[in-house]
Amino acid sequence: MRYKKFGRTGLLVSEFALGTMTFGGRDGLWGQIGSLQQAEADRLIAHALEQGINLLDTADVYADGRSETITGQALRNLGVAREDVVVATKIYGETGTKGVNSRGHSRYHIMNGLKASLARLQLDHIDLYQLHAFDPATPIDEILGALDDAVRQGYVRYIGVSNWAAWQLMKALGLSDKLGLARFESLQAYYTVAGRDIERELIPLVQSENLGLLVWSPLAGGLLSGKYGRGMQAEEGSRRTRSDFPPVNVERAHDCIDAMREMAGQRSVSVAQIALAWLLHQKAVTSVIIGAKRVEQLQDNIAAARIALSEEELGRLAELSALPAEYPMWMMERQGASRRGLE
């Protein structure tokens, strides 16, 4: 397992993180995503730690808080030293009580939610506390003030966001600098070879401001697992047949899957491993969050770290997955070409 600096901080995190969204589901959406209970979660976390993964990612809304509870108990059951694991969780949606102030990022909800997450995780601090969405109802300076207090009081080590637009994140970074508050150190976002939208605005921002980038749904909701493809009949009840999420350009995705299937065949590995390896080759990526229901599935994903894609293969996938230029990018490209002609 390789480790990378977490943005501009001195923290080191593994290039793969274990996502715990499959923990604790019972019925409805969370039951469909995963229903692993304590003993099964213990085995998954133990295997992840044995393989060198030191970053665990959860959220208060996963299985209505049960994912956090199971994750925290697993660390207790396994006797994991606190300094050997980086625990990340998130806040935004309703967990437990469904009240008018039980969602969003008001100071009220952040302080209440943080206290509840610490109790469920059985921890005295959270290493990375992330905003799970953008809250248009709460001023950003109120959000930053509450998070800064949590950091200064020792309940949180670092703060980050998930699913924010570039302008929202840049505004927050500017306010943090202006007001002398703890700044966001990471972005958690969707990114795959089949969905490169993040490259338009967010990756340039991440690289410019030296933020860590955590990738969620690296297999596009299972689309890049190898079970799907042009002309293939998906298994009845499989995740992609129940929900078209994350949304992708299907034709472009199938072109990529065809190419990755060929690359996988040449190496006797899975298509999923090639898709994960592609992400590990992207310089902006800090850690890729992988979820699993079985140890064997987790091991297959981790094995992607050993795959080295050639420049030719990376170029082929880049061409097949290329995003159509949108304004102002096509204008920048045109102006860049004009400038080159004057040199």
What does the model show?
This protein has 343 residues and is of the alpha/beta class. The chain has one domain (3-342): NADP-dependent oxidoreductase domain (TIM Barrel, Alpha-Beta Barrel), CATH 3.20.20.100. 43% of the residues lie in helices and 14% in strands. The protein has helices spanning 28-33, 38-50, 66-78, 107-121, 140-152, 166-179, 202-209, 239-242, 250-267, 271-280, 295-302, 311-320, 329-342, and strands at 3-5, 12-14, 16-19, 55-57, 86-91, 126-131, 156-162, 184-190, 212-216, 287-290. The longest helix is centred in the C-terminal third of the chain and has 18 residues, at 250-267. It is globular and about 50 Å long. The mean pLDDT is 94.
In angstroms, what separates the terminal alpha carbons? Answer: 45 Å
Query: Approximately how much beta-strand content do the residues carry?
Result: 5-15%
Q: In what order do the strands lie side by side in the largest sheet?
A: 3-4-5-6-7-8-9-10
- CATH architecture assignment name: Alpha-Beta Barrel
Tell me, what is the CATH class? Alpha Beta
The overall pLDDT, averaged over residues, is 94
CATH domain topology: TIM Barrel
Helical content (DSSP H or I, runs of 4+): 40-55%
Could you state the order of secondary-structure elements as H and E? EEEHHEHEHEHEHEHEHHHEHHH
Shape: globular
Label the structural class: alpha/beta
In total, the number of domains comes to: 1
| Unreliably modeled segments | none
Which homologous superfamily in CATH is the superfamily? NADP-dependent oxidoreductase domain
State Rg: 20 Å
Number of helices: 13
